[in-house]
């Protein structure tokens, strides 16, 4: 089941580009250096991408860190579907793959990587998920865009770009791996489509 | 997904794919140190078992608990049903306590369907008489999918006591929905009445002989001889059944070297399945079925109970 459509509807205002491919490249380069500086090297580092777009971002950061340090760092992916606090307000969907290096996360410096930080609820869910997977020494958060409007006391350690937004606006991140191109756009929130009735609500024959 | 899971007809190929995708993730939870996901936190599931069961009941119980639901087991023995309370009163009483889902096993075909008319919470059929056992079919097809990849065009032989088997009825439908071809094998006395019409309409084959079917089978599903549902006279002796329809050591030679052998359990070793078949390292997937059972039931509970409340 699709999450929010990230390709703009034809005819809808596509918004303006706030980060282009070059900006994204530079932001990730800077974040990778920040992570290394904070961690004093690449030892025990694990970059954990949150589905969907955090996963390729974590991969890219790992590649950049490998270039700089000459050693590979662990990466993984984390799905937080089962940990969300709004499960009951959506139809269910199949969770994505959670994959960790065989060595696990115990004692590691885990850097959560996501594309947009907004309410903070996804990160809250991710922290819960992590505590079921093991006990990292440190957990940090790296995001490409921080658009504000936090609903929980959560902040990012590494931010690609702080983007002041109104709640009515919509930030859409596109990445080459998932969407064919790198860019971040900001535009007006599209009018939500009328909700399609779920098959669940059908009366049993 | 539909609101209830009463029959495998409630699940089309797309819904099965969704259930399998989720189950694959749930499978990973089985290997974790902390086997707990919070998806059903605060929800209560009652396992209402009017018939004996070990694996299905414990499988549903574990599945519910790993999703953080509170799971309560009620069996007919020792409950008020044995004091003469009607099914409807028993069901209304337990749902009045405020449960969020019912898992029902009952000896009467259609019991789960009937119960779903009385209550406004999701009902999962965990076996109703000789009718259906949808989660068994889901876990069997899931096990096969993990082993064989897509089931499109694969040939599955289902062998044994077809008359009394809800596992057979649910599995035929699930396998056909996933594009497999099915041959149902049984002695004439254990072929359900009217199976020819059903086979013709649904598009599967039947056979009174096992040996010609095995060489082309991509998987063999052996069914338990259900002595408790038999009032004698289905076959002359157990020995004769084994000779004709048991998966004996000799018959293993007719199968491919890694053709999966399934059995829903409990097995009557020496009757429908030989120890050589049941313990065959390369072929037997009986224990895979058991662990898949928990993952698939977690997936079903998640999809039926975790999402948006249905009006």
**DSSP helix fraction of chain A:** 25-40%
- Largest sheet geometry of chain B: 5 strands, parallel
CATH topology-level fold name of the largest domain in chain B: Rossmann fold
Query: What value does the Rg of chain A take, in angstroms?
Result: 18 Å
Structure overview:
The complex is a heterodimer of chains A (205) and B (311). Chain A has 205 residues and is of the alpha/beta class. Chain A has one domain (16-83, 95-188): Rossmann fold, CATH 3.40.50.2020. Chain A is built from four helices and eight strands. Chain A has helices at residues 21-39, 54-69, 121-133, 176-179, and strands at residues 16-19, 45-50, 74-78, 109-117, 138-146, 158-162, 169-174, 183-188. A five-stranded parallel β-sheet of chain A has the order 3-2-4-5-6, sandwiched between helices. In chain A, strands 1-8-7 form a three-stranded antiparallel β-sheet. In chain A, helix 3 (121-133) links the parallel strand 4 (109-117) and strand 5 (138-146). The longest helix of chain A has 19 residues, at 21-39. The two termini of chain A are 25 Å apart. Mean pLDDT of chain A is 88; it is low at 1-6 and 197-205. Chain B starts with 12 loop residues before the first helix and ends in a 6-residue tail after the last helix. Chain B has two domains: 8-132 and 290-305, Aspartate/ornithine carbamoyltransferase (Rossmann fold, 3-Layer(aba) Sandwich); 134-288, Aspartate/ornithine carbamoyltransferase (Rossmann fold, 3-Layer(aba) Sandwich). The longest helix of chain B is centred in the C-terminal third of the chain and has 20 residues, at 286-305. Chain B has eleven helices and nine strands. With 311 residues, chain B is an alpha/beta fold. Chain B is globular, with a radius of gyration of 19 Å. Chain B has helices at 13-29, 55-66, 87-96, 111-118, 134-148, 166-177, 195-202, 238-245, 249-252, 275-278, 286-305, and strands at residues 44-49, 70-75, 101-106, 123-128, 155-159, 181-185, 205-207, 219-222, 261-262. Helix content of chain B is 38%, strand content 14%. In chain B, strands 7-6-5-8-9 form a five-stranded parallel β-sheet, covered by helices on one side. In chain B, strands 2-1-3-4 form a four-stranded parallel β-sheet, with helices on both faces. Classes of the chains: A alpha/beta (205), B alpha/beta (311).
């Amino acid at each position: 089941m699709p999450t929010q459509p990230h390709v703009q509807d034809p005819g809808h205002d596509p918004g303006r580009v706030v980060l282009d491919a070059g900006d994204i490249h530079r932001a990730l380069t800077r974040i990778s250096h920040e992570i290394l500086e904070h961690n004093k090297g690449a030892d025990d580092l694990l970059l954990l991408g949150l589905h969907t777009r955090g996963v390729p971002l974590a991969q890219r950061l790992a590649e950049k860190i490998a270039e700089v340090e000459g050693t590979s760092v662990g990466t993984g992916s984390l799905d937080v579907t089962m940990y969300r606090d709004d499960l009951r307000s959506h139809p269910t969907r199949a969770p994505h793959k959670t994959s960790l290096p065989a060595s696990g996360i115990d004692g590691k410096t885990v850097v959560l990587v996501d594309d947009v930080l907004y309410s903070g609820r996804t990160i809250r869910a991710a922290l819960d998920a992590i505590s079921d997977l093991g006990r990292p020494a440190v957990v940090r958060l790296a995001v490409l865009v921080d658009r504000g409007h936090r609903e929980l006391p959560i902040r990012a350690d590494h931010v690609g770009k702080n983007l002041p937004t109104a709640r009515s606006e919509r930030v859409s991140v596109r990445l080459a791996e998932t969407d064919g191109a790198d860019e971040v756009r900001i535009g007006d929130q599209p009018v939500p489509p009328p909700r399609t009735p779920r098959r669940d609500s059908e009366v049993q024959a | 997904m539909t609101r209830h899971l009463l029959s495998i007809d409630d699940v089309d190929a797309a819904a099965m794919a969704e259930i399998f995708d989720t189950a694959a993730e749930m499978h990973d939870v089985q290997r974790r140190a902390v086997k707990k996901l919070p998806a059903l936190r605060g929800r209560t599931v009652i396992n209402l078992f009017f018939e004996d069961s070990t694996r299905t009941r414990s499988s549903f119980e574990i599945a519910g608990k790993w999703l953080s639901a509170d799971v309560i087991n009620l069996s007919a023995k020792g409950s008020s049903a044995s004091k003469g309370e009607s099914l409807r009163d028993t069901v209304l009483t337990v749902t009045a306590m405020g449960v969020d889902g019912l898992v029902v096993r009952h000896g009467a075909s259609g019991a789960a369907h009937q119960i779903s008319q009385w209550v406004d919470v999701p009902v999962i059929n965990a076996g109703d008489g000789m009718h259906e056992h949808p989660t068994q079919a889901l876990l069997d097809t899931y096990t096969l999918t993990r082993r064989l990849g897509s089931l499109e065009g694969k040939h599955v032989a289902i062998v044994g006591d077809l008359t009394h088997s809800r596992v057979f009825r649910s599995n035929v439908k699930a396998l056909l929905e996933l594009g497999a071809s099915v041959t149902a094998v049984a002695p004439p006395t254990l072929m359900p009445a009217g199976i020819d019409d059903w086979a013709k309409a649904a598009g599967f084959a039947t056979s009174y002989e096992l040996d010609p079917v095995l060489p082309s089978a991509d998987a063999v599903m052996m069914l338990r001889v259900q002595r408790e549902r038999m009032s004698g006279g289905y076959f002359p002796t157990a020995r004769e059944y084994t000779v004709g329809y048991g998966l004996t050591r000799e018959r293993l030679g007719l199968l491919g070297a890694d053709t999966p052998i399934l059995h829903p359990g409990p097995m009557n070793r020496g009757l429908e399945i030989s120890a050589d078949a049941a313990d065959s390292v390369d072929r037997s997937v009986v224990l895979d079925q058991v662990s898949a059972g928990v993952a698939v039931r977690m997936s079903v509970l998640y999809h039926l109970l975790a999402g948006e409340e249905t009006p």
